[in-house]
């Protein structure tokens, strides 16, 4: 996916969702291909250095070693055969291809490639996008693992994590059900969130640390130039909730806020939205540093209720 996100404000959210569904279908092996490249480059480095493979040169053994499905392993092996580093011997067994039967010298340790990033973020973002269709979607572990080029055990762990985040429900004998986005649910969450975060701000006031507030302010300073992807620091909210010291407020966000936290992070992938989020964070933090509690309360309330592209269509209608 391109670092530059399409602006959500250029068309309504349901048009956007339709485009997302097409994108996900067409981009089926985007993550898998990065894993394929990693496996191929890692094996190539070992083969060129003359090192023995840490596992048997079989598809099953390699898939187990890299903790992926057979799909990216087959693709990586096919490329290594084409490049002359591997060959198929008797009974189609994989063997190392060595010109003239000579073993290459291992004068130094091969430089292994960097492993691909954890696919959790890609999968979580895809599922949040799909949830915006408003319809329940059922996921099968085998199909989903194949789609992302990872093993079933790896995808199962990720799906369990996402279930804990409130994104999925596990349905016996049917697989995993994606929880659909509901406009009214988000409005209800925002209403309760606003009340609880304002209460957290009130409780945290005598315990706020100036150095920490200044650190958070610096983290929310936008870069001076460039059009690259921005990473919004959301720890201001966690800081207020934790500093407040109210276990019931903390419990609400731990239990109910996980899906919406993923949704808000997904929204911030749009550069304009991210810049506005950072500006609003700075406004809150500046008021807190000045001990202007009424301004901080007003800025926090506006921030919680504003800047949600997924609500733009309904707000206009």
From TrEMBL:
InterPro entries: GntR_C, TF_FadR/GntR_C, WH-like_DNA-bd_sf, WH_DNA-bd_sf
Organism this protein belongs to: Allorhodopirellula solitaria
Record's protein name: Colanic acid/biofilm transcriptional regulator
UniProt xrefs under SUPFAM superfamilies: GntR ligand-binding domain-like (SSF48008), Winged helix' DNA-binding domain (SSF46785)
Residue ranges annotated for the GntR C-terminal domain, each copy included: 188-306
Keyword DNA-binding among record annotations: yes
GO MF annotation: an example: DNA binding
Region (Disordered): 91-121
Pfam hit, one: FCD
Sorted UniProt keywords: DNA-binding, Transcription, Transcription regulation
Comp. bias (Basic and acidic residues): 104-120
Signal peptide: none
């Amino acid at each position: 996916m391109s670092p530059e996100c399409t602006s959500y404000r250029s068309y309504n959210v349901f048009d956007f969702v339709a485009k997302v569904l097409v994108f996900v279908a067409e981009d089926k092996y985007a993550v898998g291909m990065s894993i394929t490249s990693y496996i191929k480059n890692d094996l190539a480095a070992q083969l060129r250095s003359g090192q023995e493979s840490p596992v048997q040169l079989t598809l099953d053994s390699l898939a187990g070693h890299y903790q992926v499905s057979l799909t990216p392993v087959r693709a990586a092996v096919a490329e290594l055969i084409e490049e002359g580093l591997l060959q198929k011997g008797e009974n189609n067994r994989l063997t190392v291809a060595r010109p003239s039967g000579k073993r290459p010298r291992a004068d130094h340790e091969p430089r292994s490639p960097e492993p691909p990033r954890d696919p959790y973020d890609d999968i979580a973002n895809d599922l949040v996008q799909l949830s915006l269709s408003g319809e329940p979607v059922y996921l099968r572990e085998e199909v989903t693992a194949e789609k992302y080029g990872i093993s079933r055990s790896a995808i199962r762990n990720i799906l369990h994590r996402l279930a804990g985040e409130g994104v999925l429900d596990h349905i016996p004998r049917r697989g995993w059900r994606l929880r659909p986005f509901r406009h009214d649910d988000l409005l209800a969450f925002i209403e309760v969130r606003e009340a609880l975060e304002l209460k957290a701000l009130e409780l945290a006031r005598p315990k706020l640390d100036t150095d920490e507030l200044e650190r958070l302010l610096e983290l929310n300073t936008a870069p001076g130039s460039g059009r690259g992807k921005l990473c919004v620091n959301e720890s201001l909210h966690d800081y207020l909730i934790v500093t407040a010291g109210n276990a019931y407020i903390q419990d609400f966000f731990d239990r109910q806020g996980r899906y919406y936290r993923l949704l808000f992070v997904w929204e911030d992938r749009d550069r304009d939205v991210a810049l506005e989020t950072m500006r609003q964070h700075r406004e809150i933090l500046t008021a807190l540093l000045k001990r202007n509690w009424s301004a901080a309360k007003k800025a926090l309330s506006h921030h919680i209720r504003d800047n949600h592209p997924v609500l733009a269509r309904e707000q206009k209608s």
